[in-house]
Amino acid sequence: MTARTSTPAQETCTAAVTGLGLVTAAGVGVDETWREITQATAPSGVRRPAELSGLSCDFMYLADALDVDAHLDVPAQRLMDRFSQLAVIAARQAVADAGLDPETWDGSRVAVVIGSAHGGLPFYDEQHTALMEKGDRRVSPKLAPLAAVNGAAGSICRDLQARGPSLAVTTACASGTDAIGTAHQLLRSGACDIAIAGGAESVCSRLIVSSACRLRALSTRCENPAAACRPFDADRDGFVIGEGAGLLVLERPEHARSRGARVRAGVAGYGASNDAYAPVAPDPEGSGVELALRTALADAGVTGEDVGHVNAHGTSTVMNDFIEGTILHKVLGEHPLVTSTKGMTGHTLGAAGGIETALTVLALQHQLVPPTANLESPDPEIPIEVVAKESRPARLDCAVKTALGFGGHNAALVLTRA
User: Fold this and answer.
1) Of these residues, 13, 173, 229, 398, which one is catalytic?
2) What's residue 40's pLDDT?
3) Which of these, 62, 128, 391, 413, could form a disulfide with 38 (CB 3.0-4.6 Å)?
C-alpha cells in the first residue's frame, strides 16, 4: 500500500513528549493498547456489567484486564476512587517510560494536570444510596477526597512526590485534551520543567448511563454491543461509554535534551474555545471547533496543509461526527488521514483526550494511522478520508487531536514528529 505524505512542520515544539501511560479497554500499557488499536480486530473490551443490568443501554467498555492489586496495595486503594487508581497506574507507566525517577527529581518543578468529566461520581451515587437506605452514619467520611474531580491529580502528586502546580481540568469530554494544552502552557511559561498530563474516567454508574441514554446520546444497539460504536458510519446511532486513563509526560525541550531523554513527539500548539450555543448540542455551524482548530494551528505556526493525520473526537453520534468532519475538511482540506479510536476504547469522556493524544503520538512515532473500528459504510455527507478496515502507513510530520464536549467546550492540539 502506498504511504501518504505530509509537509514537514516548522520546528516550533515547546513541549517534548517523553513518556506515555495507557490503561484502556483495548489494553493495559502502551504496547498492548497500540497493538490492539492497530490490528483492526473487533473491540474486545465491551462488557455488560451487573451495575447496568436492566437498563436500555446496558453495556460499556471496561478496562477489566487491569489487576489493580498488582499495582496498588489495599491501603492505597482505599484512598482513591477507581478513576484515580487508573490515573496513578497510567502516570507510573508514563514516568517510567520517560526514564524519570521520582526519587531523584526536583518535585517542585513537576506539574500534574489531569482532566476528568465526572471524577468519582459513581461513589457519590453509592453514598447517596447508603444515606437514603441506612442513614447518615453509613456515609463515608472519605466522600469529598475520593469523589472530587481533583482526586486523580492529588493522588498522582502524593504517589510521585510531584510538588509543582497541580490542577484538575473539567471541560466535559474535552477535559483530557485541555489538560494537555494547559500543561503545554505551564511548560512554556517556565512554571515547571516536567508535566504529567492527560485524563482519567470511570463511570460505571446506573445514574450516568441512564441519563445519557435518556438524552439519546448512547447507542442502543444492544443486540451487538461490540459493533455499536461506529464513528463516521452512515448507520451510527450514538456513543458507548468507556473507562480508562491516558497520561503523557511533557518536558521543556532543553530539559529533555539535558538528560538525554528519548522524545516520542512534540506538542507544538493548543487551541480552546466555546460554542456559546447549547448545553449538550454542538453549534450546527461548527464555529467553536473551527476556532479551536485554527487557534492551535496558529499557535504551532503551521497550516492545514502541514497536517497529515487527525485523531478526531469522532464519538459515533449523528451530529457530532457530521459537524466535526465538515470543519476538518474546511480547515485542513481533503488530504489528512482521519481516524477515531473510540470504536476500540469506547468514549472515555474526560479521559478521551489523554488516551487519544497518546495514540496520536504513537501514530507519529510509528508512521501508522490506526483504523476506525466498525466503519462499514462511511457517511457520504462527511467529506473527509477516514481510515477503516486496516492500519494505513503514512509519512506523518504533523498531526492534530480534536475534542468537543458538553457545555460547548472545544479543544485542539497540534503534535509534531520527533
Assistant:
1) 173
2) 75
3) 391
